[in-house]
Amino acid sequence: MKKIICLLFIFVIVFSSSAYAEDVENNDLYDLTEKYSLFVSNQFDEELETLTFEEAQKKALRNNSSIKKLSASIKLAENSLSIQYTDAMADSGENFSSLISFLNSKSSYENNELSKLAQQESVKHSMKESYINIIKSQREISLAETALKKDELNINISKTKLENGKISQSEYDSLVMAYNNSKENLENKKKALELNYVSLNIIMGVDVSNRYNFVMEAVYEPFELNIPVESYINGKVTLSNSVKQSKKTYETTKQTSAMSPINSTEINSYQTAQNNLNSAEMSYEDTKDSVYQSLYQKYNSINQNESNYASSVEELDMAKRELERTEVKYSNGKASYYELINAQYVVAEKENSILNYVYEHMLLVEEFTNTDLM
Fold it and tell me: What's the CA gap between 364 and 301, in Å, rounded?
């Protein structure tokens, strides 16, 4: 049975790849981390182990308790199915209880296998989210440290201005308050990073105190479809894991409901069977609709992300041109050092924003295209 299911799954994957292929606008893809790391970079500690995403993923899959439980349940169900099948074949034809039991167990077994596949993909996706969150948190801390240095310099300059009567005490106090807020913001980001570390280690099933260096390419691929989005989504709905499970339950209920009244002495057995069938059918239709709506929202999120990415790239270009002008002015003594580092900070902020959109885009596209996450 497992071999048959595997063959069917491979057929589905091949069909999905050919019928619903995405067109990539730019085939020359490369890691954007260095490109957008002029003033902000990921933390690196030579004393720490470098944990690649692939290694983290393997640990998470190996240690996940839900996957282990599903594997054990599937193994037990597989052993009992053969016994139930023998009992079902021995039915006299007047009593279908063994056959009904076998059909329900078979449906449960197949849905458990789908659940295991979905759980594996969910774990991998959660792993990617957690891994990316740490990379983003590290960069946010680096950016916040840059902002703090900038604000600290501004405080020192403003203190001199206050002493010379060029700004008021209230103006100076506002700057001090902004500086203190920046310090608090930095501390909050450090706490958030620690929570992200703990979350990652829990997913991998390792000691929560473990710390690593992280490496993940930030690759941006504009998402394009070669068929209408409605057609694409309808195809994905059919292949989605949750819809396949719901469909399997409905089909099994349809089979058993036809036999249940014959096997039962209850007065309302027929109506009960019909109610169960209607409920299973409604659940199946609701699941399809829910997945469709979710995918459409995800598609809109991808479009919004790409629009934000394009806008941020334009803003970065302007910020870089402004930085170039400020550098010239500073070298000619027409701009202050504070103006220079402020221009650098604006560039760093835009670069970090772009990378955040890239990582978000990577996750959104995976959620939109991976049927086992649906």
Answer: 8
Distance between CA atoms of residues 52 and 165, nearest Å: 55
DSSP secondary-structure letter at 23?
E
Q: Residue 49 pairs with which residues in a beta bridge?
A: 212
The DSSP call for residue 93 is S
pTM of the model: 0.79
Q: How far is C-alpha 206 from the geometric centre of its chain's CA atoms?
A: 21
Which helix (H) or strand (E) segment holds residue 40: the answer is: none
The residue extents of the domains of the chain are: 1-30+228-252+271-374
User: Which stretches of the chain score pLDDT less than 70?
Assistant: 1-29, 79, 82-83, 85, 87-96, 260-269
Q: Determine the Cα–Cα distance for residues 254 and 46; give it in Å rounded to an integer.
A: 62
- The residue behind tokens 């209408």 is 228
Strands 49-52 and 212-215: parallel
- Rounded distance, CA 342 to CA 42, Å? 21
Would you call 228 helix, strand, or coil by DSSP?
coil
Helix H or strand E segment including 212: strand 212-215
- Residue type (1 letter), 191: K
